[in-house]
Amino acid sequence: MLTRNNPTLVVKNAVFNYGDKNILNGVSIDICPGEILVLLGPNGAGKSTLVKSITGRVRLLSGQIFVNGADPSDSALARKQSGLVPQQLAIFNKLSPLENLSVFGHVMGLERRETRKKSEELINALGLQDVKSIRTERLSGGMKRRVNIGAALMHDPKLLILDEPTVGLDFDAQRNMHSLLRWLKQRNLAILLTTHDMEEAEQLADRVAIIVKGKIRDVGRQQDLIYKNFGVHQQIYIKFREDVVQSLTPDQRAWLQQLNLQPGNNRNSFVGMVSKDQSATIVRELLSDNAITEEFRLHQPGLDTLLESYLRAE
Question: What angle is formed at CA 156 by the lines to CA 153 and CA 158, rounded to 5 degrees?
Fold first, then answer.
């Protein structure tokens, strides 16, 4: 298990307002070398503003940010400690992967010889050898993402920030991207990843930070957060037949209320958390009267359940 000594990124009580709107409200997180922290939250939660503050593009109203020990809003050296891979590709389509990396190396102040050496190293490390001289516009989405990551790594940052890096990628490209991120983690990079893909978060995260309305609601290992919030409860989903919902008996409605099940995404469904003892009873009840049930699912809660619980609490 990672110790929390000498984190690469430290954010303490970060506050940022846009006009009279509070965007960040006392955000505190840290990331250590060799760790992937996944930042989860709905649109408008403050994720993009937090990333901008970490990269020195906005200045906090109050609070502190340190990247490798220095404040990126005041220190160019601190800003060079971060590499950013935005959701929208930030590369030159008319240039080849090798040319792209060379351009970004020069922009970051590398000497010509160092740029050439680093470009070739990253081309090989990222699996771009066979396409290094092809115009980037002709490459697949997954290859373009690799080029963008290479551009962000040219100056050897200590912190890599990725905003939705697998959006629009097919299954194989996503899997390859995940393998690449694990490889970068093994190289002792601190990685901050934002994603709306809960399965991706569960696969990659060493820790998860949940942000809602500018506040970090919880942070920790996903299994610890899930147990803290749900214990040994399971998530249940029941969907009744269309013709049944309106004709549920009072006893059936009372049974649903006793289980604290709430209406689901459509008017025929109910969702909630139940104990293992309750789940066994529910299964028996539904099997004894399965004609009224169109769909039934029982599973362990995951990060999607955890995020939904914080959103409902607002």
Answer: 100
How many angstroms separate the CA atoms of 135 and 271, rounded?
50
Place of tokens 């400690």: 81
Q: Which two tokens stand for residue 192?
A: 């901050």
| Per-residue pLDDT in tens (0 to 9) along the chain, 314 residues | 455 678 999 999 999 998 889 999 999 999 999 999 999 999 889 999 999 999 999 999 999 999 998 999 888 888 889 999 988 888 999 999 999 999 999 988 889 999 999 999 999 888 899 999 999 999 998 899 999 999 999 999 999 999 988 888 888 888 888 998 999 999 999 999 999 889 999 999 999 999 999 999 999 999 999 999 888 888 888 887 776 666 667 777 777 777 777 777 777 787 888 887 777 677 666 656 555 677 778 788 889 888 988 887 76
Q: Are 221 and 4 in contact (CB under 8 A)?
A: no
SS (H, E, C) 6-49: CCCEEEEEEEEEECCEEEEEEEEEEECCCEEEEEECCCCCCHHH
Calculate the alpha carbon distances from 151 to 97, 147, 155 in Å.
9, 6, 8
